[in-house]
Amino acid sequence: MSVTPEAPFGRMLTAMATAFHDDGRVDLDGTAAIAAHLVAHGNDGVVVSGTTGESPTTTVEEDGEILRAVKDAVGSDAVVIAGVGTNATAHSAELARQAEKVGVDGMLLVTPYYNKPGPAGQLHHFTEVAAAADLPVMLYDVPGRTGQAIPLEVYERCAELDAFVSVKHATGDPTAVVGLTDLGYSVYSGDDALLLGYLAHGAAGLVSVVGHVAGVQLHEVIDRFLTGDPAGALAGFRRLLPAFTAVMGVTHYGATTAKAALELAGVLSNRNVRGPLVPLDDGEVAALRHGLEAAGLL
């Protein structure tokens, strides 16, 4: 008999965008509106100030304001996870302490990027940040953005500590879920297009980008798969393929495509991003609209 994997943060989460005014200031009302939209449309939780939230461009003070706005908007109805990952341990520890004060449900901690520490440095970073706040940790393994994967030895050492409960896994290898779940982690796919592969290998759910406009549909795919209806899950997944291509097929996907999709859905009045990103141009928005319409999302 199959065992449904534990999901400490729910099954369906979206790494949410951060709204900005035309002058570049954080739009807290717009950010709260994004969170409310996500929770009203199929998401069990939201991840705040991750890559899609443009965290490399926001200050510690802004991160706190964003987190409080989201917590106030949806914290009584959904899980709120704070992105605290940076490539400076002291900076991440400061964000972790701030997240604990806000009262969120967990923190997302990505591999330090650019300076590329070895296994000992990664372990030091992860454990120091985890010790800075009494919050459960979701490690984030995304070598396409950080330049290196988390080695097995680091996963093994972190698994010995109670704080490390889950992994957002975006390495392109769903088979890695087997080893990670054997260590006790709940694993979330970090790649929308590989969701079924991750679920087939024992993942607990998804941390999504396409979930900005397809939370209900993606949650249904997960639910169908985990309740013994893989054919139904596959059918629902196939219907979403044009949206995956439209949202994730742009070179500078993420915040740019998420915000343009939210604009098309009427959640945001603009698609402002901070440099070095630039908004989708009109042709890219037209292609995005076509993909979302083909998937039945507009």
Automatic annotation (TrEMBL):
What CDD domains does the record tag this protein with? DHDPS
Keywords linked to the UniProt accession: Amino-acid biosynthesis, Cytoplasm, Diaminopimelate biosynthesis, Lyase, Lysine biosynthesis, Schiff base
Q: Does this UniProt record's set of keywords contain Amino-acid biosynthesis? A: yes
Q: What is its EC number?
A: 4.3.3.7
**What highest taxon heads this organism's lineage?**
Bacteria
List locations, semicolon-separated: Cytoplasm
Which residues participate in pyruvate binding?
52, 207
Reactions catalysed, semicolon-separated, are: L-aspartate 4-semialdehyde + pyruvate = (2S,4S)-4-hydroxy-2,3,4,5-tetrahydrodipicolinate + H2O + H(+)
Pathway it works in: Amino-acid biosynthesis; L-lysine biosynthesis via DAP pathway; (S)-tetrahydrodipicolinate from L-aspartate: step 3/4
Q: What class of enzyme is it?
A: lyase
Q: Which residues cross the membrane?
A: none
Its principal location? cytoplasm
Site described as Part of a proton relay during catalysis, located at 51, 114
Which Pfam families has this protein been placed in? DHDPS
Q: Which InterPro entries match?
A: Aldolase_TIM, DapA, DapA-like, Schiff_base-form_aldolases_AS, Schiff_base-form_aldolases_CS
Looking up SUPFAM superfamilies in the UniProt record yields: Aldolase
| Statement: the UniProt record of this protein carries the keyword Signal | no
Active site residues according to the UniProt entry: 140 (proton donor/acceptor), 168 (schiff-base intermediate with substrate)
Q: Please state which protein family the record places this protein in.
A: Belongs to the DapA family.
The entry describes its oligomerization and partners as: Homotetramer; dimer of dimers.
Q: What does this protein do?
A: Catalyzes the condensation of (S)-aspartate-beta-semialdehyde [(S)-ASA] and pyruvate to 4-hydroxy-tetrahydrodipicolinate (HTPA).
List the protein's name.
4-hydroxy-tetrahydrodipicolinate synthase
